[in-house]
Amino acid sequence: MPRINIQQLNNYAHLFKRQIRTTDLNYSSHLDHTNILKIIHDARVECFRELGFSEKNLLPKSNKLVQVVVGDLQAQYLNEGELFEELLIETDFIERSRCGFRMTHRIKSLKPFGSLDQFNNNLNGNNSGNNNNSNNNHHHNNIGINKTIGEINEQQNAAGTTFKNIALVEVGIVAISPIDHRPVELPDSFFKTVGLNKNFEITKIKL
Fold it and tell me: Are 202 and 9 in contact (CB under 8 A)?
């Protein structure tokens, strides 16, 4: 059976960060596929908020209340997510219709590569000198406090970090009236706000 192959964008308009929590894991201690859908929902809500509207009101400057429902969804799972990994959820708008639009999400995490030799050498260097205790305390107190996982990984790996793609998701959104629950036609001004002009073009890259 052929797998779904969702295309990635060269660039995404919105970035949302979130760490994998214990409640996100399945019985195998990996990021559960159902929670990926909840995570992209959080990213979508935040994206809407930054653009000046919400799922409960797509047209806040209009006297017409317009809400959203999910019409369809497809997901492609690429790699496992681990506890405490910091996720980068990228979001953008890729298609428009008379009464809706399609969004795409890419979930990835920072993946360290290289050797720990440089980090271990730095630790050994900090253990020498006249101010042993104060230096050691200062060094250890700086690790994991007010730092993202990416910053810690960059400090601990000589070669640095790269990205690990975890999932690609596309969601079809339908605009509806909360009164009669019928689809509502969206104005060009809305699509202009989200970057979907009538003659828009998006360059995609394949996996």
Answer: yes
Residue with tokens 């999910």, as numbered in its chain: 70
Q: pLDDT digit string (tens) for 123-137?
A: 555 555 445 554 444
pLDDT in tens, 25-51: 999 999 999 999 999 999 999 999 999
Q: Is 124 helix (H, G, I), strand (E, B) or coil?
A: helix
Distance of CA 20 to the CA centre of its chain: 11
Give 22's DSSP letter: G
pTM: 0.75
The two counts, helices (H) then strands (E), for the chain are: 5, 7
85 with 185: CB under 8 angstroms? Answer: no
Structure tokens at 33: 């596929």
Structure tokens at 130: 């006249």
